[in-house]
Amino acid sequence: MNRPAGFGTRAIHAGQTPDPTTGAIMTPVYLTSTYVQEAPGVLKGYDYSRTTNPTRVALEQNLAALEGGKHGLCFSSGMSAINTVLALLASGDHVVAGNDLYGGTYRLCTTMYRKFGVEFTFVDMSDLDAVRAALRPSTKLVMTESPSNPLLRLTDLSAVAELARAHGALSMCDNTFATPYLQSPLAHGIDIVIHSTTKYLGGHSDVVGGALIVDDESLRARLAHFQNSIGGTPGPLDCFLVLRGTKTLHVRMDRHAETAVRLARELEAHPRVSRVYYPGLPSHPQHALATRQMRNGGGMVSFELDASVADAKRVTASFGVFALAESLGGVESLVDHPASMTHASIPREERIAAGFQDGLIRLSVGIEDADDLSADLHRAIAVLDRA
Ligand SMILES: *Cc1c(COP(=O)(O)O)cnc(C)c1O
To answer: Using alpha carbons only, what angle is made at residue 163 by residues 162 and 169, rounded to the nearest 5 degrees?
Structure first.
């Protein structure tokens, strides 16, 4: 090919060649812990499956190709991937991180790395002055998530990458919500992309996994050292499932977004809804940035009902097609009441100060028929009309 392959072609083929011994078109699931050596120390490229495994290598190359990066590293969970990045730090180092990070990331920073003497400042990543003001001589890492959860705030990735680089710090972007189909952090100068492959990349709610993608070889080597030392690596069957998921990522993401924008518009017009958060709507305060940085608005929609916690819970329990569950990014639609589910550990005053009320509801819009999802959403909100 004399031009770079398009996203869908890479999704289906990158990292995967027919098995040389049988011609099997699908990458084999190499269920092996060790590899026979031809002579002591003479390997065919593999020595032990924590260190590397052919099914994992196929997935690592596939994800690197999708993110437009040189190197991929896979993990047993998104948290394990993030932990491996934080393992680069030493006592006395400082990190600037988003104040609306995924709860598990926040917990890892504050209950584990803080104990080891790493310092953290949490700021609103959409406020570049706040990011700049938080940087210290000891800042080694800037961590962001875009769009963030549950309010779908965006980070200007080029600007944050530039601030970090000028300061001599690494930048990391959690690209789980956007996926590489919508957004390419490396192209904006971000050093490390992380994914929970549990979400859109796997796409079928049947596997937990994580990944890192980087361009720089010495950074890859440092991360691979801790990947192998910590040992949070995925099994080959999990890698196979994620590889099967990425083949349809582009098709799924287009459908997720097409239905999400329809539901977001319907919610905006709904008298019971006081606010809708969706980067693909012109009413989103960072819609211009979304247009610049993302292919479309993605599959996550949050909205505020003018309702108490009890009423919001009543609405979320009334869906029939949307399942009441945490997590996101699967083919099936999910509904979440952050105040009592995903974000229940945040005290109420802090949650309200962070900008979300008791009536906030988060949807992971799946790829069922849009008419069915729309009817389900309207039917659920209508329970508010019954006292
Ligand atoms: C789910 C999630 C994680 C954690 O990933 P696991 O695979 O559950 O360990 C990290 N970041 C974001 C944005 C997530 O949604």
So the answer is: 100
